[in-house]
Protein: LysR family transcriptional regulator
Amino acid sequence: METRELRYFVAVAEELHFGRAARRLGIAQPPLSRAIQQLERRLGAELLERTSRSVTLTEPGAVLLREARAALDAVEAAERRTRRAAMPNQALVLVAKAGAAGELLAKLLDAYAAEPGAVEVDVQLCGIAEQERMLRDGRADVALLHRPFDSTVGLDTEELSTEGQIVVLPAGHPLTGSPGVRRADIAALPGLPLPRWPTADGTYPDGPGPEVRDHAQLMQLIALSRTVAIVPESARTQLRGDVVAVPLLDAPLVTTVIAWPPHSRSRALAGLVRAATRL
Amino acid sequence: METRELRYFVAVAEELHFGRAARRLGIAQPPLSRAIQQLERRLGAELLERTSRSVTLTEPGAVLLREARAALDAVEAAERRTRRAAMPNQALVLVAKAGAAGELLAKLLDAYAAEPGAVEVDVQLCGIAEQERMLRDGRADVALLHRPFDSTVGLDTEELSTEGQIVVLPAGHPLTGSPGVRRADIAALPGLPLPRWPTADGTYPDGPGPEVRDHAQLMQLIALSRTVAIVPESARTQLRGDVVAVPLLDAPLVTTVIAWPPHSRSRALAGLVRAATRL
DNA sequence: ACCGCCGATACCCGCGGGGTATTGCTGCCC
DNA sequence: GGGCAGCAATACCCCGCGGGTATCGGCGGT
Structure:
């Protein structure tokens, strides 16, 4: 199988429409139809169910969609990493969630910079759920993730720290100064539903809370009394003046881990991981 | 990048000889030379250092070799898994080391078979260090691995059991019946060096011990007083009459884990993992 | 019943991947 | 030191295949 075929199939499987997929790929529709037919013949599997009005995935098609995405990511990663290896000054790309792990990240960068042979570290702050993809397709070398929120499937990790969580409320909320609340109390707060974060595919789950996509937006919405949030304790130092925090007693512990793609331990990456585990 | 280019590069990088690589690929040498040049141009990286007498990998070339193998495995896995998904009766392929994990495996198969909706399980016994590759390229769905011997990088795992280890000696050896020995005692045994197992690339490390590649061969060599072995306790029940075992007091604990490729939890696999964790 | 949408088919073209023949370089051996 | 052998690169040709346009066939909606 050639990557071209995989790209074609992924386009059709995502669009579920040959015409749109062809436009997205920058080719005409007929060659795309043929390519998919050829792929189906070679695999001996019907990948798509077509009527003249709709295209749907069969079960083998769903399997291939998942696998093809992973394979294309691996190919893309090979390309990117080779390009990077050929560059003269090879910075490590570290990706972290904007607004999270701030203090730990600063300490890590300091500790690593003090090591002999440390290379430049290029810190990329990105949205939720984008980190895993960046690691997988070679755009990033290493990430700071938070268990149990982020999936670490298929990545190598080292645990860095574990902490409790706090509830962030609008300033002046009745619970301000409370010695501690429970999850059930938060869920029952009148008019303050928990926010909805985008899932891996970029869509939002259903629910009453507002849709948020980054930390600043979340804080703004809290200050406006539109929502509340449960965040790791370490985020307390970064809170704005118009929100307050109270401890959450029965929150699951949050573990910050440093994660990197398997089989990719360059010297520089190994040094960074070593510095991280010594914090 | 197309998989064809990756296959070509891997062949040349492994053979370090354009002629042999071309023969292995079933094409002539000139198109292969051109394809590699084209790849180098597109990546903007010199991958191979050629003189008229030798070909060597550059550092970006070494990166690409590693990444290309992973990418090709992913593509191959996509193909195999799609084919399998299209077959009517989809057995789960479980791979275990021949001669290891025997009892646990039997219990696991029984427990899973008793579950509702259980599918057939195709047990493949293979040599050391081949299991990971079979999982990665889609020939197997799930494996029983032994930490810390097997690498579980890039795989999802669940721990099943932890046990100590024992030393297997020729029958009649002076240590027979000893209440327990230490690693230092074993290393110092006159004329009984520890065996050498093949590494991931199929070669053997240097050392005094005999080369072994499977369990039966190892037992035979022990019975012949050519070597000794350190194996998990559970292997005791499978020992032949002409060898004896004594406990090893300071051995690292061996953990048997069930492992599967990330993002590949079919219903059947999930059932098997569930049955395993309930053992 | 007709129109419009969409995937499949028919047919054509040009590029690029693959082949053979040859060159050019270099280490080795007599 | 000159000739030879081995190997990658170059030159040149060809055909298969990937891609394009035109068209068909089937089906749903109005």
User: Anything to note?
Assistant: Residues 88-154+255-277 of chain A form a domain with the D-Maltodextrin-Binding Protein; domain 2 fold (CATH 3.40.190.10). DSSP finds nine helices and ten strands in chain A.
